[in-house]
Design brief:
By secondary structure, this protein is of the alpha/beta class. The chain contains eleven helices and eleven strands. The structure holds adenosine monophosphate (AMP), zinc ion and fe (iii) ion (FE) (2 copies).
Amino acid sequence: MKFADLHLHTQFSDGTFTPEELVLYAQKSGLACIALTDHDTVEGCARAASACAAVKMEFIPGAELTAEHEETEVHILGYFLDTNNQVLLERIARFQSVRQNRIREMVAALNQLGIPLKAEAVFALASCKSPGRPHVARALVKEKLIGNLDEAFEKYLKKGRPAWVPKTKMSALEGVELIHQAGGLAVMAHPGLNRSDDIIPALVRAGLDGIECFHTKHSTVMAERYLEIAEKYGLLVTGGSDCHGFSKNRPLIGTVKLPYDHVKKLYAAKRSADGKRAAPK
Ligand code: AMP
Ligand code: ZN
Ligand code: FE
Ligand code: FE
């Protein structure tokens, strides 16, 4: 059996692996295909593609966009993106600057609480254009201002806590359209995490192509529920570990294994979408 892991992060957003390290671990876990889905960036895709080509592993360029629908946060995965698409690049550049400004706001909130963290320390540690809360948490640990990452989220950074700053987001409908115009398939990420089942019909009407049924934080029961939802709406099925690096002393990549038949269906859907777009109006 061939398997894929279609939800992975690198140092180009809040993952801790380089694209090359990610591919090395993908190979070690016996995967046949991976997709890179960094938050609001496609920068790591070229290096991941080269590293995959060198070991004859299939690679799908992607990204994970943070969006919202009627105040529900929803992450939308884009697959088979044209990483040179100018509209996509311009739009995500704007969200990268939103992320950078948000780091300053979170640090200011921490400073208000008497925690002497400097924004520059976070930016130096993140060393990427798409920084996020995990970088703030890691900087707090590094500066010995908190014991560990979980504590940083629990005490300061998770939604509703004193240094949590909401992020300006694109609408989910805009996210789907942005992915489509860049040649990609749009997939709702980890629906079980955001408890966002009631927005699925609206996303389907907006042209959503698939749903992530298999995810590290989905129970078997949840995965089955989303498989049924996929069937009901005619959605493609995806899955991935959402690896950000090591978790409990092992690389998370490959711990969620998507049977390759689902990847075949993604390729087929991509081809038919290309055909549709190429046809004269
Ligand atoms: P951001 O995009 O800046 O809002 O950060 C979101 C990222 O933070 C997610 O992709 C996770 O990697 C991480 N994250 C969110 N909540 C937690 C939590 N409670 N504990 C640890 N990591 C978290
Ligand atoms: Zn993340
Ligand atoms: Fe996510
Ligand atoms: Fe993710």
